[in-house]
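Hey, resending since the last one bounced:
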Amino acid sequence: MPRILFVTKSQLNRGSYWRGWYLGVQLSQMGFDFTIACPAEFRQLGIRRKQYSPSLRVITLPRLHEKTVLPGIALRSAVGPLVYDISRMDVVHVCAPAFPETWMAASISRRSGKPLVVDVDDWWGMDPDGVRATGESKLEEALERNAVSGADRVLAASSLLQEKVNRHARGKASIIPNGIDAREFASLSREMSRPVLLKRTGLPANSVIISSLADSNYERVLFETGRMLHDKGRNVYLLLVGLGRSPPEGSNIVALPKMDRREWLSVILGSDASLLLMRDTIWERARFPIKLAEFMATGNPVISSAVGESRRILDEAGYSRLNSGMYVENSPEGIGRAIDFMLNEAEMVKEVSKSAMDYALNRLSWESIAVDYIREIRGLLPG
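The structure tokens again:
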């Protein structure tokens, strides 16, 4: 079985670490030798998942501050353990290549002649100084600066990233999305989640509850939507998880504090639908919408902005059958129209939601993604 070293470094989020962790869990269970090299503070994140795969190996990535200050032998000495690990691997997979540590791993891999996979799972790891910048030129600059053309294979998490990467990687980019843990959703109970949610919020049993994660970027729109629903006398409520202040009076807004992941998923499962708003920026169009995949995996209807990769996934999952009825503009009126559509076309929406759940739990599960990943890795090896 191939021996794979997955190197990740992200100061901005843990997404690339979990990408490596879940791939490693799946592959190590299949008998692959899979090692994750990551910052020391990330190592503790996976300890509670060790029961899934005791053979998964995690090592500490050495810290560097500049790409060029340590020449020759001094540089190799600074990353000695990493040089050793690369020497014994069949494939080196580097995620978030803009950071000195991961850039160095890619450089050592190229010099050693080991097949190199560069992972473009989102923009953060390529351009830490330009995070969430809206200009498309920033994305192009990040791709060119990180020399994805020097990789033997580039894995992009979205179709837009694949398109952009292929301009620099001579058609060597494939889509390997981020995924969800299907077992996590299988362990949740809808029958238990709904009564608990009603008791916690104090809402009537016949309430239509639409849950969303509180986000300061969309707070005004959500508050205005809540006031609109209240003024119209609707029994539809927006449930905002993680709202840092009291909701405005005279609105159908219910707030819950921040909570751990399992509790949050139970809240989503106990709701009647989920709401996900996104801005039409290059950042939103390029990244893989993991929250959308998780919302779909609950089997609840999803009211969502249809931006970039989100639109592609929603269409493939079956929402295209609704003629954009559940796709919203980021306005109270747009959200209101989608709510009306959901309630008026309840049977069709229910069928599509079931189709989307099957899509998420099968096509977007780490088990399924690992199969595609193995195919990409094997394509780099002789024989």
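Residues 182-363 form a domain with the Rossmann fold fold (CATH 3.40.50.2000).

Sorry for the duplicate.
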